[in-house]
Amino acid sequence: MYGKVSGSGETLAPLLAIQGDPGELEALGLLVAGRSTDPIVLVELVNGAGDRQQRVIPRLAEAAAQAVRARRPLWIDATWLPESTALDGMSRGLLEYLDERVVAALDRHSGTIDPRVPPLIPVLGTAPSDRVLHWVRVLRDRHPRQLVVRARRNPWLARRNLIDQLLRIARTTGVPTRSMHVVLDEGHLPSLTADRIDDLVHTVRSLAHRIGPASVGLLVGSASQGDADPGGRRELALWQALSARSPVPVRYGDYGAGVAGPRLESAAAMSGG
Question: What is the pTM of this model?
Answer without folding.
Answer: 0.82
